[in-house]
Automatic annotation (TrEMBL):
GO terms for cellular component: centrosome; Golgi membrane; midbody; spindle. Required during prometaphase for centrosome maturation. Following poly-ADP-ribosylation (PARsylation) by TNKS, translocates from the Golgi apparatus to mitotic centrosomes and plays a key role in the formation of robust microtubules for prompt movement of chromosomes: anchors AKAP9/CG-NAP, a scaffold protein of the gamma-tubulin ring complex and promotes centrosome maturation. The lineage of its organism: Eukaryota, Metazoa, Chordata, Craniata, Vertebrata. Residues 150-234, 236-332 form the Ig-like domain. GO terms for biological process: cell division; centrosome cycle. PANTHER family: HEPACAM FAMILY MEMBER 2, HEPACAM FAMILY MEMBER 2-RELATED. It is found in: Cytoplasm, Cytoskeleton, Microtubule organizing center, Centrosome; Cytoplasm, Cytoskeleton, Spindle; Golgi apparatus membrane; Midbody. It is a single-pass type I membrane protein. This is HEPACAM family member 2. Coiled coil: none annotated. The chain crosses the membrane at residues 353-373. Its main location: cytoplasm. It comes from the Eukaryota.
Length: 463
């Protein structure tokens, strides 16, 4: 019973003490005392200085400001580092040259930083005024060495055969603490798969077995809280292939595995496949149930004159002497009169142009003939001859007087008017007299009209 009473009294005392602490903190918060730190964890580099910034503020009159720094490690009691009242600093003599504080600034400078300085740093601020207000913060400090540039080693260094060999990549770092490893392929993280695995620390990458898809640019990225470095690019050697063997040509028509070659035309075939190392190629011809190698190398030139008119079968063989794999591509060459067809097509394509040219020549010739006809037509020739005769020949023309028989007056008459210098038409001095049936203006009529009117003139003429 006495022991139970003692425990009950102890619990009530502890409860009252906890309540007082809670009320004290609540009062401090209400009165505005607040201590803040930018980060609860700060990473430092060994051998360099580390600054721990601290800010505090309050809204009550204060006569004294006390700042205390404590240091603790896991499973140990906190140690006093230094303290101040107002602007007077009281350091622990053991650490007086290592820790620095400039009150009323509560920030702490650690110089130089060592591995033994890693732990939790507690800052406590007390304000003395109408009462005492207290607030504190804790900062975790880590100390590391920066990592150096890693180096990647690959085994086997000579390479591995696809689906047969395995490969191991190891990342080595000379300096650095708390190093984390990450493998990158073509700048992207490498994931665990059925053929890819990592060591416990992730510094080794295993690929078993290797495939063509494992080819790429590998790097090892190492980092810790204070540094980060990446290795140089390394590309593992993986032997594979051949894959995707195909035959193409610089001429001719290809339909599936059949090449159509023009008569008299030389055609160049080339064989290609994806492989490492590069394949060795050989060309085989099949004729009359026999096969024989005709050439080695990736190219083959075929002349249609040297090929029989019937279809000829060929085979391109690709062989990888490291992987031991081979592949074949079969194709047939057919000789046709493609050239004649091309010529006919060419003639068809030129026929519109020929038609246009013919029409143009016809129009040009027609225009030239029309021009010549207009320039040298007959009536102009006759006119020029008449104009060239002397005027005296027209004066000798007979008149219609004195003939007894009018039938003797029939004939072909010419009526010609000569222009004088003034441009006025002038009649010859002796002319045919106008009768009642023929007016003076009829003298300018054509020959046909004169012959038509002569009988009427003869009947009206007196004896």
């Amino acid at each position: 019973m006495g022991q139970d009473a003692f425990m009950e009294s102890f619990r009530s005392t502890v409860g009252i003490f906890q309540c007082k602490i809670y009320l004290l903190l609540l009062a401090g918060a209400c009165l505005g005392l607040k201590v803040t730190v930018p980060s609860r964890t700060v990473h430092g580099i060994r051998g360099q200085a580390l600054y721990l910034p601290v800010h505090y503020g309050f809204h009550t009159p204060a006569s004294d400001i006390q700042i205390i720094w404590l240091f603790e490690r896991p499973h140990t009691m906190p140690k006093y580092l230094l303290g101040s009242v107002n602007e007077s600093v009281v350091p622990d003599l053991e650490y007086q040259h290592k820790f620095t504080m400039m009150p009323p600034n509560a920030s702490l400078l650690i110089n130089p930083l060592q591995f033994t300085d890693e732990g939790n740093y507690i800052v406590k601020v007390n304000i003395q005024g109408n009462g005492t207000l207290s607030a504190s913060q804790k900062i975790q400090v880590t100390v590391d060495d920066p990592v150096t540039k890693p180096v990647v080693q690959i085994q086997p260094s000579s390479g591995a055969v696809e689906y047969v060999g395995n490969m191991t990549l190891t990342c080595l770092v000379e300096e650095g603490t708390r190093v984390a490893y990450q493998w990158l392929k073509n700048k992207r993280p490498v994931r665990t798969s059925s053929t890819t695995s990592f060591s416990l620390q992730n510094n080794t990458l295993h690929i078993a077995p290797v495939t063509k898809e494992d080819i790429g640019n590998y790097t090892c990225l190492v980092k810790n809280p204070v540094s980060e470095m990446e290795s140089d690019i390394i590309m593992p050697t993986i032997y594979y292939g051949p894959y995707g063997l195909q035959v193409n040509s610089d001429k001719g028509l290809k339909v599936g595995e059949v090449f159509t070659v023009d008569t008299g035309e030389a055609i160049l075939f080339y064989c290609s496949a994806d492989s490492y190392p590069p394949n060795t190629y050989s060309w085989i011809r099949r004729t009359d149930n026999t096969t024989y190698v005709i050439k080695h190398g990736p190219h083959l030139e075929v002349t249609s004159e040297k090929v029989a008119q019937k279809p000829t079968d060929y085979v391109c063989c690709a062989y990888n002497n490291v992987t031991g794999r081979r592949d074949e591509a079969h194709f047939t060459v057919i000789i046709t009169s493609v050239g004649l067809e091309k010529l006919a097509q060419k003639g068809k394509s030129l026929s519109p142009l020929a038609s246009i040219t013919g029409i143009s020549l016809f129009l040009i010739i027609s225009m030239c003939l029309l021009f010549l006809w207009k320039k040298y037509q007959p009536y102009k020739v006759i006119k020029q001859k008449l104009e060239g005769r002397p005027e005296t020949e027209y004066r000798k023309a007979q008149t219609f007087s004195g003939h007894e028989d009018a039938l003797e007056d029939f004939g072909i008459y010419e009526f010609v008017a000569f222009p004088d210098a003034a441009g006025v038409l002038r009649m010859p001095s002796r002319s045919v007299p106008a009768s009642d049936g023929v007016s003076g203006q009829d003298l300018n009529s054509t020959i046909y009209e004169v012959i038509q009117h002569i009988p009427a003139q003869q009947h009206d003429c007196p004896e």
